[in-house]
Amino acid sequence: MNEKSLGQRIIYYRKMAGMRQNELAAQIGITSSSLNYYEKDKREPNVSTLIKLAKVLNITGDRLLGIDRPESSAHDANELSLLRNCRQLNDLGIQKLLQYATDLIGNSAYKK
């Protein structure tokens, strides 16, 4: 992912979070057209906007900027998919998902 432009990384992580452009823009307090310019690499977001993007997308600033190190606690595609799905659940669904995870971890057939 590091060879991608900032705009491409924003698109990638927005889609991994299951968000539309207008949803992400609203959550970080900018217009959809501003986000569109960032995603097309026509403009660069300021530091405050970069911080908001990273927080809403649940990634590190380093990851967003493409300077993360391999040994960092970076999310792989499966982890991001789980996170995206988890965000769609209510509190009861989250508790059920956590119970499933605990049950799977307790079964040696599913552990690494």
TL;DR?
The protein is mainly α and 112 residues long. 61% of the residues lie in helices and 0% in strands.
Plain-language structure description:
The chain is mainly α and 112 residues long. The chain has 2 domains: 1-71, lambda repressor-like DNA-binding domains (434 Repressor (Amino-terminal Domain)); 76-112, no CATH class. It has 7 helices and no strands. It has helices spanning 6-16, 21-28, 32-39, 47-57, 61-65, 77-86, 91-105. Helix 2 packs across helix 3. It is elongated. The protein starts with 5 loop residues before the first helix and ends in a 7-residue tail after the last helix. The model has no long low-confidence stretch (mean pLDDT 87).
